[in-house]
Structures are given as structure tokens and as C-alpha cells.
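Show me a record, fold above all:
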Amino acid sequence: MALVNQAKREINAKIVFFGPGQAGKGTSLRHVFNKLKPEFRGALKVMSVQGARMLFFDFTPPGDGNVDGFRVRFHLYTVSGPLVDPAAWKMVLKGADGVVFVADSASQRVADNKTALDQLVDYLNGYGQSLATIPAILQYNKSDLPDASPLAQLEQQLNPSGLASFQTCSQSGEGVLQGLMALVKSVLTGLRTRGADAIASGEGLQHMVESPAPVAAPTPPVKEAPPAAPASVQPTVAPAAPAEEDLSLEIAGDPVAAGDLIRVPLTIRSGAREKTVVLTLSLGLSEE
């Protein structure tokens, strides 16, 4: 779910490195960070999320990385650790514009790769996405090791839909950057097809919150009757109007920082109704 920053004339897109534990997701992301020139990237940050480590940084691709005059800034995320809570992955995958599935090429990790791929499909389905609707590539990591499965076997096991795939070695970096740049081009193509105006108009907060229930028209005031002479007559008190349901706002999860953007999951409640949204804050410093 790309986000438009009108003030900076930027479109912010999100790419997630996903895969089984110890497959090389964090090492791959760090290699990309180290290979990019400092003028094209932000700082690499680490945050604790649901007991795991989330790594992320942002960069602008060199060359023609614009959409309708807006510069595109990519935010790369992954969650590192042998076991990652599903809640952490769901939070990181929310709003993703592209996915790198990092598989472990070792023959003994076939089951782990398939389980992780099934989890990815399930998480994306929860957001109305799939590997057919979101740009994605397969990264067969550790392909240089003696126990690595042949490419043809990996393709048969993990890639029946024919996604673009790359044999990589995250330790040396071989193939990692090439795979990511292919995905970046695919995401850029999709953004250009939609255009900056369509991206901006489709992702405002008002599009993520249910419309409020219609408010009934106020009852016209009743003219007061002339005062009665006898003191024993008690005035009639009009029934009080029903109280409106209180509106509450709660933080639904840990805020996620990416460069000068902070995404805060919120839950809005009104009576028995509730809606979860993501509030994106853009931070900047101004000189006086």
C-alpha cells in the first residue's frame, strides 16, 4: 500500500523479505544496505517486535525512479530470528507493495520452505492480496553450499506459478541485489500504471474508516404553554434525547518507524462497532 507524501513529492513503497527462520533474510537485507551508496539510503534500524528483531531501512533507487514527478522511496523490512510470532509478520506485511521470499536451498529444509510459503500466502490473503496480485520474487539462498538442492528441484517444489527466481548467497551477496532490483522495477511498473493521483486518492484515512451512521434531524422546539395559575400544577418535563455513543481511539499495536514515517495501528470504537486503521505520520524539521 504505497503512501504519498505531497509535501516532499515522494511515494513511499514497502518491500518485505519473508522466509523460514535462519534462511538468510536479515543477512540479505544487510548486504543490500552495505552495497547502496550512503546518499541513496537511510540508516539501518533494529526494533524489537513480539520478541523478534525487525530490521528496516529506506532507499531511493538511482536513475529513473519517479512516478508522475514523484520520487519513489522504498522501505525494506524483515523480521529476524529462528521463530517469529505470526503477529509480528502480519504487522510487517500489512501494506506491502512487494515481497522477496528467501528460501533455504538446503535439501533438509524443504518442509520449512513450504510451511513458510504457505504462511506467506495465508497472511497476504488476510489483506486481500496474493502472490498473483503483489510483485514477488523467490530468492534461493545458500545455493553455494554443498547440501543445496538443484535449481530445477527447488523450482518444482516452491515455484509452480513461475515467479522470477534467483540463486543467491547472502554471505557473499551474490545474486541478492540483482533479485531486489528486478522486484523494484516490477513495483515501479505497477505504481506508474496506477499513477500518483490514484495512489494518493485511494489511501487517505477516510477510505479506511467506515462512514459514520446518519444522525437524525433535531426535533423542533415546542412552544411553551402560558403559565398556569394554580401552583399545584406540575410542569411537564420533556424526555431527554438519547445520548450519542462514545467514540474511543486505542493504539492496536507497536508503532513502526521507517525513515521519517511512523505507522501507528489504531482501533476506533463506537458502541459495538470497531474498525482497525493505520495512521501514518510524517516527521520533518523546519528552520525558523
